[in-house]
Amino acid sequence: MSAPVVGRRVRVVVPGSSANLGPGFDALGLALGLRDEVHVEVLPGATNGVPSAHVQVSGEGAESIAGGEGNLLVRSVRAAFHAAGVLQSDQPHLRVSSCNGVPHGRGVGSSAAAVVAGAAAGSALLDQPLAPERLLDLVCGLEGHPDNAAASLLGGFTLGWRESAHGAWRAVRVDPHDDVVPLLCVPGVELSTARARAMLPLHVPHGDAAHTAGRAALLVEAMTRRPDLLLAATEDRLHQEQRAAAMPESAALLADLRGAGHAAVVSGAGPSVLVLCPSSEAAARAQDLVRAHEGWTVHAPGVDRRGADVAVHTA
């Protein structure tokens, strides 16, 4: 059984991500160069079975993030401890700080970034860290699906799945083609993932399922070897149109971009829009089109190819 090391401090830098990428619903993810930096320290002193956490947050979402034991980072640290066999009575006091660069409530994986940062920190604070596949299974399980979580943990372009209905979560990481330029278009409004998911139908027509399988397979080829196929490969029938009523401005921007030949998709559950451009010239043209729509901020974050970066300091 592992145990947290008193006095150990870790720093974790973790990227945000875009999930689905059109047809890859709950499976495909892309790590983006928007990052949170998290510091976690195991504090000395007996807890008497009632551990506490001192939490400081700055940057994106700071005004609405819970503190103390209700904080998602803290819960994820403790989930890693629990996965390693640490009993509740042996959970330590923690000091946690986070400087957030990943926008919240915009469909760019802010909750997954927090889960990955917390779990990766918790693993690194143990005298026997979790095995990489165990950490991956943990963060995907905490999120409920592997798209954002795998991308934030592993970096690059990820394909995730579950071995069975109750089996382990798995993912593979591949490098996107160097010519692929992601543009992230962020609106000034938020949309909760729960609300977006509630709009999805319980069943889909067989034709739509078959279309999605083909386009998701094509998307792997487009992202890694044939960026010229990105527009066709990002066509979706499962979730974007079904959620359009909750984000009409996103739907309008999406339609304009795709009508002009750009591979635009809803980023995760929205309301941000991601444009997968096959060249820097195409990215410039897409930016010009987005500027014609009011209320959008455009980022060119690049692809984060490192994933969660962990540094350990021992007192």
TrEMBL record:
Gene Ontology terms for molecular function: ATP binding; homoserine kinase activity
InterPro entries xrefs: GHMP_kinase_C_dom (IPR013750), GHMP_kinase_C_sf (IPR036554), GHMP_kinase_N_dom (IPR006204), Homoserine_kinase (IPR000870), Ribosomal_Su5_D2-typ_SF (IPR020568), Ribsml_uS5_D2-typ_fold_subgr (IPR014721)
GO biological processes: threonine biosynthetic process
Top EC class for this record: transferase
E.C. designation(s): 2.7.1.39
Record's function text: Catalyzes the ATP-dependent phosphorylation of L-homoserine to L-homoserine phosphate.
Keyword Transferase attached: yes
Record-annotated GHMP kinase C-terminal domain positions: 230-290
Residues in GHMP kinase N-terminal domain copies: 71-156
Family, similarity comment: Belongs to the GHMP kinase family. Homoserine kinase subfamily.
Record's protein name: Homoserine kinase
Record's keyword terms, sorted: Amino-acid biosynthesis, ATP-binding, Cytoplasm, Kinase, Nucleotide-binding, Threonine biosynthesis, Transferase
Pathway in which the depicted protein is active: Amino-acid biosynthesis; L-threonine biosynthesis; L-threonine from L-aspartate: step 4/5
A Pfam short name: GHMP_kinases_C
Organism domain of life: Bacteria
Gene: thrB
PANTHER family given in the database record: HOMOSERINE KINASE, HOMOSERINE/4-DIPHOSPHOCYTIDYL-2-C-METHYL-D-ERYTHRITOL KINASE
Compartments, as annotated in UniProt: Cytoplasm
GO CC terms of this entry: cytoplasm
Reaction(s) catalysed (UniProt annotation): L-homoserine + ATP = O-phospho-L-homoserine + ADP + H(+)
SUPFAM superfamilies linked: GHMP Kinase, C-terminal domain (SSF55060), Ribosomal protein S5 domain 2-like (SSF54211)
